[in-house]
Amino acid sequence: MIRINDHIALDESELEERFVRASGPGGQNVNKVSTAVQLRFDAAHSPSLPHAIRSKLLRLAGARATTLGVIVITAERFRSQTRNRADALERLTELILEAARPVKLRRATKPTRGSRERRLEEKKRRGGIKAGRRSKPSPD
Predict the structure, then answer these.
(1) Is the pTM of this model over 0.70?
(2) What is the CATH number of the domain that holds 47?
(3) DSSP reduced 3-state for 107
(4) How do the pLDDT tens digits run along the chain, 140 residues long?
(5) Residue 20: inside a domain, yes or no?
């Protein structure tokens, strides 16, 4: 079991890892060893996630989620397979924790009396400045 938080834990059987060759620098190592990790997690059909978290997770995943609801995380930051595996799992965990975070509700507020008065005074002042710029016809 992979513990995400107090309420969510994923079974290892829900995760699928594929090892592919990484791009970028690395000399001969990059041509011989498959160090990059593709971590696949079927979020749409996961029994470990509540429905609300599942839908929010798929929204947050964006382009990392397939049309079938599988989240694919590719990790190739490090030159070793074990560090890339840990990196991919950590990124999935962070994504699930972000989806599990409750939405902060906005509390409607009104502007204070002082701020309304200051706004109106500023409007009057600006209007006075602009009125002073208007050209007045000469009495000639």
Answers:
(1) no
(2) 3.30.160.20
(3) coil
(4) 777 776 776 767 777 777 877 776 666 666 667 778 888 888 777 777 778 888 888 888 788 788 887 888 888 887 777 888 888 888 888 888 888 888 889 899 999 999 999 999 999 999 999 998 887 766 76
(5) yes
